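TA notes, week 10

Several of you asked for a full example with nothing omitted. So below is the full record: structure tokens for the whole chain, then the designed sequence directly under it. When grading your own attempts, check the secondary structure regions first.
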């Protein structure tokens, strides 16, 4: 029997998932250590520390010839002092409002992770995802990207490459922004963030550019929230068009990703119910040694083109949350997201279709700012960024064997040099200027 959205919401409201131990975890701890190399014939060593859904589909990800390097366990990736200071300064002020909205939040981590009771607090899932939403990410992000399409191990000729930049416009932790404008970059700011992309290749898409605003009101209940605004410049039309992003669950340009799948979740929190399903130790690609696009186009991502197995993996404390859409037209019945408990970055997620069958697996690779300061420079108020950034997303449609890989290995969160440059970058008029 197919479960209705109403049935899912009733479950979400009435049931709090109990914490549970991981199955098959060795009582003496992991059978691997820092410096080990895990090859295909030794995968059983890491199986207890992988999500079971991931292991059940291992053929997409693990392959003969792989060499997984084991890095340090539970390495300290804590955020910079300014973010920690803001968390402490505003501790206890943020609260969960109607429809899992966020109230009275200023800056830092809204709900300190060490105070969240996953087992006993029915709002634990919502608190965790708000921490995820406001995780430390520098001033936003800047990168070059390469977006590839894969079908059962074959890279298709369709691809996109270009540049992207995100700018955090509110709830910033730099002391100057907090003292002068309550965390806003500009006075009377109504936007939460802005995100722009430019397409350089292929030839028939060159020159397309896009700008999206997400508003502060997106944190409020749905009746009070303003949808994202998106504008796109299309060279063949020679003008900027405003497009609707109210439906963020549509596939992007024929890919397996939706807008809300990026980073495992880039949606609007109050549009979902949230559950905390427990804590566990997980191994995941955490601090990449790979330098693929834009540094190197020829790195081997496995026979399906969708694997991070040939890289550095680390053992981490993780927490599992589930979303259940409020929207009856949402393509997912639910999605489970495994989040790193310290950095709040996503490690893995698993999306289920309306028949409650596993549909998509999403996972990520990361890169740590302090291991390569030449790549990611600090700034006056944040001399040490201490940012563990997602630098590649992979999605696999296990029902079709297709998937997509997005590479942006140079992604960093160093800000533009002045607020004037920020204003010019996020100005909609820039999209068509000089074209």
């Amino acid at each position: 029997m197919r479960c209705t959205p109403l049935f899912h919401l009733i479950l979400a409201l009435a049931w709090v998932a109990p914490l549970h131990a991981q199955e098959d975890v060795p009582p003496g701890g992991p059978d691997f250590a820092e410096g080990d190399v895990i090859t295909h014939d030794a995968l059983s060593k890491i199986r207890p520390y992988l999500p079971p859904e991931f292991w059940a589909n291992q053929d997409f990800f693990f392959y003969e010839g792989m060499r997984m390097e084991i890095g340090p366990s539970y390495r300290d990736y804590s955020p910079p002092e300014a973010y920690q200071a803001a968390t402490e300064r505003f501790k206890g002020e943020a609260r969960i409002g109607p429809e899992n909205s966020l109230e009275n939040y200023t800056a830092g981590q809204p709900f300190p992770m060490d105070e969240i009771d996953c087992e006993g607090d029915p709002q634990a899932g919502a608190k965790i995802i708000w921490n995820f939403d406001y995780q430390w990410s520098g001033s936003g992000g800047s990168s070059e990207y390469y977006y590839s399409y894969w079908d059962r191990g074959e890279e298709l000729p369709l691809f996109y490459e270009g540049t992207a930049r995100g700018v955090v416009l509110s709830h910033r932790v730099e002391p100057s922004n907090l003292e002068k404008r309550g965390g806003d970059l500009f006075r009377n700011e109504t936007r939460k963030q802005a995100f722009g992309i430019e397409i350089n290749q292929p030839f028939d898409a060159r020159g397309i550019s896009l700008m999206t605003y997400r508003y502060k009101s997106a944190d409020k209940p749905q009746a009070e929230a303003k949808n994202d605004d998106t504008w796109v410049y299309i060279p063949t039309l020679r003008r900027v068009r405003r497009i609707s992003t109210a439906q963020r669950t549509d596939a992007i340009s024929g890919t397996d990703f939706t807008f809300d799948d990026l980073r495992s979740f880039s949606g609007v929190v109050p549009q979902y119910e949230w559950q905390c399903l427990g804590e566990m130790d997980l191994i995941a690609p955490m601090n990449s040694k790979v330098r693929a696009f834009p540094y190197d186009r020829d790195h081997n991502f496995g026979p399906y083109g969708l694997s991070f197995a040939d890289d550095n993996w680390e053992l981490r404390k993780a927490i599992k949350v589930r979303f259940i859409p409020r929207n009856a037209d949402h393509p997912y019945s639910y999605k489970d997201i495994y989040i790193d408990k310290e950095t709040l970055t996503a490690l893995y997620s698993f999306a289920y279709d309306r028949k409650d069958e596993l549909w998509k697996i999403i996972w990520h690779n990361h890169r740590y700012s302090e291991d390569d300061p030449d790549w990611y420079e600090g700034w006056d108020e944040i001399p040490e960024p201490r940012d563990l950034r997602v630098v590649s997303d992979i999605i696999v449609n296990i029902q079709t064997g297709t998937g997509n890989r997005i590479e942006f290995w140079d992604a960093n969160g160093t800000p533009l040099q002045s607020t004037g440059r920020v204003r010019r970058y996020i100005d909609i008029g820039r999209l068509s200027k000089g074209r």
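The radius of gyration is 21 Å. Use that as a sanity check on your answer.
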